[in-house]
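User: Predict the structure for this protein chain, please.
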Amino acid sequence: MVNMRIAIIILSGLCSFPAIAQDGPVGIAFVQAPEQGGGIATGATMDEAFDKATAQCMESGALAEDCIKTNWCFPAGWSVDIFLQHREGPHWHEVFCGLPSKAAAQATALHVCDRQKRDYLIECSPVQFYDEQGVAQMEN
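Assistant: Here is the predicted structure, written as structure tokens:
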């Protein structure tokens, strides 16, 4: 009987609090269309974010099937998009998301671009950092 009263009191207390709204995006998606463009978007679900990122990718002229899903992080955290180029010419982007802070994103870029470990690169640099809301932090 005492346990039932405690449960009722706890449930009554929980019901008296206003519903906590989920404020803002919770995940981030990245897509790339090689040699054509890419997209980045946030959303409450993976499908929502990838749909938005694909639509953004297609604005560059790419077809939906060209826009390859590369990264999804939930929660979004901080992200970094890094441009790399091999000394023989090929180039690509590496994206890391879900990082706990801007400092972690910057450190990730520094380690990814370590020329001691990747001596075959002629170029390696972050092209964009994104905060937890998916907002670009570097001016283009």
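Confidence is low (pLDDT under 50) at residues 1-21.
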